[in-house]
Amino acid sequence: MTKLAESWAAGDKRAVGQGTLTRQWAMVIDLRKCEGCTTIDKPPQCVEACNRAHYLPEGQQWIRVVVERDQRGSFFRPIPCMQCENAPCVQVCPVGATYRNASGVVLVDNNRCIGCRLCMAACPYDVRVFNWVRPPTPPEAALVRYSPEFPVPHRKGTVSKCMLCAHRTAHGELPACAAGCPMKAIYLGDLTTDVATNGDEVLQLSTFLSENHAYRYRGDLGTRPRVYYIPGHGEAFGRRPGA
Amino acid sequence: MKRAPLMVVAAGAMALVLSLLVLPARALERVRVVVSERGFDPPVVEVTEGELVEITFVYGDSHLPQDNPHVIFIEGLRLESPQISRARPEVAVRFTAEQSGRLLFKCTAYCTGHDRLQAGYLSVRPASAAGPVPAVATVLQLLAAPPDVPGAKAALRAQLSSDDGQPVEGVLVRFEQQAALVKTGWAPVGSARTDPRGVALIEYAPFGDALRVPARAVFEGNVRYQPAEARAVLDLPALPSWWAPVAEVRVPVVGTWLLWLVVSAVWLTFAYVAYQVFTLPEPRAAAPELRRRPPR
Amino acid sequence: MSEARRLEAQLLGVLARPPRWYPFIVTLLAGVVAWAFYAWTVQYRIGLGVTGMHNRVPWGLYIINFVFLIGISHAGTLVSAILRITAAEWRRPITRMAEVITVVALMTGALMVMVDMGRPDRLLYLLRYGFGHLSSPILWDVLSVATYLTGSLIYLYIPLIPDLAMLRDRLGPKVPGWQQWLYRTLAMGWRGTPRQRARLERALTVMALLIIPIAVSVHTVVSFVFSMTLRVGWHSSIFGPYFVVGAIFSGIAGIITAMAVFRRIYRLEAWITEEHFQKLGWLLLALNLIYLYFTFSEYLTMGYQPDDAEAALLRLLFIGPYGKIFWPMVLGGLVAPALLVMVPSVPALRSLRTVPVLRPVPIALTAAGLLTTVLLARGMPQAAILPAWLASWETLRWPLLGLGALLILSLVPVLQARRVASLVTASVLVNIGMWLKRYLIVVPSLAVAQTPFGAITYRPTWVEYSIIGGTFAGFALLYLVFSRLFPIVSLWEVREAEDSAIREPADVGTRPYVAPAGGRT
Q: C interface toward B at CB cutoff 8 Å?
């Protein structure tokens, strides 16, 4: 446990040569590869993996998959927390319970949150959820020591959300959704070193984004999200956009 | 003059015979794959690069109570088979396996029992491994020029020649760089065709979290030449920084100090008023005004 | 005996011996409050899940009521301070009522926020951590509401001092010991010496000047909680003034309602006259028109945006599920009150009385008869005696609408004869309308999907209704208890006006209550 806490406190820093390198986490979701898990006839596996990894109470989804339409037809869009660099939720929190850590991940300190829910009203991506009743604690979650990087057990009357699996990335693991995606459509990226990976391949983040016309969801809002989408309709797995 | 047509026919026949002798024969490889709700049988189809392949997909779900049609899509080739069903239990697709590698094929129709496990692979052996003509061995050399300024571009120069020293022109060389995030892997950074000197050159900005960056050039090989690979190391002067925080747009001058100023001014006034109120009581003697009673 | 003396006698009588209905009403209100408290304990035990709020509509009735009550609170201080500064003489009998509304509404309003918190046990975190995070509009709210509450308590207390001294001297043993102690302590040894009067006057002037910007800031900041977000319908620069005007508007309606109630229950008709209602009515009308204008510009700007979300919000409001609230709010809460204030004052309309057909009772009876016929015809099987055409609204739509118009016209002379009644009706309508308006500000904006979602609905539960009911009961209870312990009219100010009317103005100046020689301090 102490070891975990130490590595979190380090804020995903590591020494390189003379200087120190701080990770700046980002996420890339390749919508060409996301077919909503319809070809395998299962509920979205990123959502399932996230729910399992964080012992989410019923009714909460920290990442959710929605269906959208464009000119070519429908497509699936997984929506995790966008980890905005200019996060509206961080601005409005009256007690500083929600904050960005050194790696740019927006975290919630459930031991400080007073449950005013202004951050939920302020979030333009609807990703924040509230523990409206006492969340059940499964036995395996009861032993976890709480930290904002791994907000388990959940606290009644406070706000939670996706925290880009800060507890996993600190140990060099993919976020639960990326690891759980059978299509390998979700990439973890690091803006500092310009590397992205989905666990299968390793890529240069900036090239990957620019060559594939990546965009940020509702980028016009100026929140500068850290989550990028590569447009597509799940065609990598033979899905036709009209379907 | 009457023999001219005959001459033409004869020449044509000669050319045909010659071409059959000179060009490698394009063998037609036939494979049968049974498609059922449990997957593909055999799950992996091995063919050779450059060969003409005919895969016959056979409907294998006749034992099921209902019809369970399939459409098989071969990724990479962008090839989709006609539907097989009870009514049409066999379809054949023909294609040339142009590139070696592993291609996924799977059913794209909605069918019962289907699962992602029900994917098959088309494994294309490089022609050099089995081709009738033994390919020429090649030598690849890689020169890596690191940037002199952090964040600038590095140059990777690969030279491909056959083992007898002749430059190989017009083939594609892929460049990769090693990078680590969660896992360590080779990230593609670009590709270039060799020029008449056999040189392929790219410029790219090195990335990652290491000062010594391994890079490699890969020639995949083709019918005539064997594959080759070369490695080099880029010694970066310092780590480039790819990310910088963007300055927030804020209203100038207005800050929390203004808020404090206003709030404390208000509360000081409250204190002044409270002082006025709390100094109201006074000793009775000091009130000569009491004699003057208001009229009733 | 002068008017002021009679008023004093009347109110002192109330304080010495409360009316017979008083304990019943207090018990009733306390019962409602107790029920609300029980509902709150349920909510505290189980969590906010017992309310109708959910992740897509995270705010509901509590925040709506908070905005409404903070709005009502503007009544007082602002109206009384502005009238005091501008030396409007007619203000004298109503300032105290207005000031009490402010304090009571602020107390109950602040309570709403605490009820809405997911972790009320962490309330003090706002002080512990809050001052490091002043970028949060909630902190601005905490600061300005706390300042406003303190300020309006002081502003209520200062003009109460001379009256307290009078109660101390005049009620004496007629009231229980603790009440005597209360008056004695709070009166601050007031005897009406020139030095005391000077100090009181200075404090009162400073507070009257200071409380106006504070009051404006409070509702501006309440609007900032909404407008600082990126939500459609909230993110608007008009919100500050829009909220302030709405607050003063509903505040004045609150005063008119309270005036009518107290005038009735404490028999104050001689002092709170039709003139007071009429003057406040003009103020109400002015703010009504400004509010209509703001509403118009708000929605017109929104409707001109080529933005999908804005269009979706307008659809929800105008023709969607919230239309059922929106149109009653606009027509019943804004247009109808304006007409109710204006129409009785148009002399030309008086001639309507001379038209023989225009009698409300016959017209209403005819309309009711027609309605009953249609309803009966619709309720019966097809083979009934009544012809089928009678059962269709189509045939009778125009006759019914015509009768409705006639009814309204025939009511005009009635309203002209009962101006106070029509003003009070207008005020009640405004209060209901403004509550609905706050509902329309909070809920539909949250219900507009920012990311793809199905229909988002919000249905409050019994817990929310109980707590809201309890808040209003608590509001009434606090107001009533205040009026039982302290004079609800500023007695010394009324007498001061009378004195200055009798004597030459130069001689008197301000003359708060002056204790008789034998008075205790």
A: 5, 134, 140, 143, 147, 150-151, 154, 157-158, 161, 188-196, 199-200, 202-203, 206-207, 210, 214, 499, 502, 511, 514-517, 521
Residues B185 and B99 in one domain: no
What's the pLDDT score for residue B231? Answer: 92
pLDDT value at B130 more than 80? no
CATH code assigned at A65: 3.30.70.20
Contact list in C for residue B290 (CB cut-off 8 A) is 191, 193, 514-515, 517
Instruction: Kindly tell me the burial class for residue A95, based on how many C-beta atoms sit within 10 Å of its own C-beta (0-12, 13-18, 19 or more).
Output: buried
ipTM confidence score: 0.89
Contact yes or no for A17 and B238 at CB 8 A: yes
Structure confidence at residue B4 (pLDDT): 61
- State the alpha helices, DSSP H only, in chain A: 2-9, 45-53, 88-92, 118-122, 139-142, 166-169, 176-180, 205-211
Helix (H) or strand (E) holding B45: strand B44-48
Contact B51, B19 (CB under 8 A): no
Chain C hits for B286, Cβ within 8 Å: 193, 195
pLDDT at C491 over 80: yes
Provide the residue type at A122 as one letter: A
Q: What is the pLDDT of residues C216-244, one digit of tens each?
A: 999 999 999 999 998 988 998 899 999 99
Q: Which of B130, B156, B189 is the last residue of a domain?
A: B130
Smallest CA–CA separation between B285 and chain C, in Å?
Answer: 11
CA distance C150 to chain A (A): 22
CATH number of B228's domain: 2.60.40.10
How many residue pairs bridge chain B and chain C with CB atoms within 8 Å of each other?
77
Q: Can you tell me whether residue A148 is helix, strand or coil?
A: coil
Q: Chains near B, with 3+ CB pairs < 8 A?
A: A, C
**C129/A112 Cα distance (integer angstroms):** 9
* Among the listed residues A226, A190, A242, A236, the one whose alpha carbon sits nearest the alpha carbon of residue A35: A236
The answer to which of B119-133, B166-180, C260-274 has the lowest mean pLDDT is: B119-133
Paired tokens of B5: 């047509």
In chain A, pLDDT over 70 holds for what percent of residues? 91
**Do B207 and A193 lie within an 8 Å CB cutoff?**
yes
Selecting from C113, C136, C453 the residue whose C-beta is nearest the C-beta of A93 gives: C136
Low-confidence ranges of chain A (pLDDT < 70): 1-19, 242-243
Structural domain ending residue among the three candidates B98, B113, B130: B130
d(CA C427, CA C337): 7
Into how many domains does chain B fold? 2
Rounded to a whole number, what is the distance in angstroms from the first to the last CA of chain C?
27
| DSSP symbols for A175-198 | -HHHHH-TT--EEEEETTTTEEE-
Please check whether residue B182 lies inside any domain of the structure. Answer: yes
Cβ contact A17–B114 (<8 Å): no
Rounded distance, CA B10 to CA B8, Å?
5
User: Is C47 in Cβ contact with A131 (below 8 Å)?
Assistant: yes
Q: What is the DSSP string of B82-107?
A: PPB-SSS-EEEEEEE--S-EEEEEEE
Copy the structure tokens of residue A178.
């990326």
Domain that holds residue A36: 19-237
Residue B75 belongs to domain spanning: 25-130
Q: How many Cα atoms within 13 Å fall on the side-chain side of residue C201?
A: 13
| C509 band by pLDDT with thresholds 50, 70 and 90 | very low
Q: Which chain A residue has the Cα nearest residue B188? A: A203
Helix, strand, coil abundance in chain B, percent, nearest 5: 20, 40, 45
Return the DSSP state at B249: P
Please give the residue of chain C at the shortest CA–CA distance from A132: C49
Q: Which residues of C touch B270 (CB under 8 A)?
A: 150-151, 154
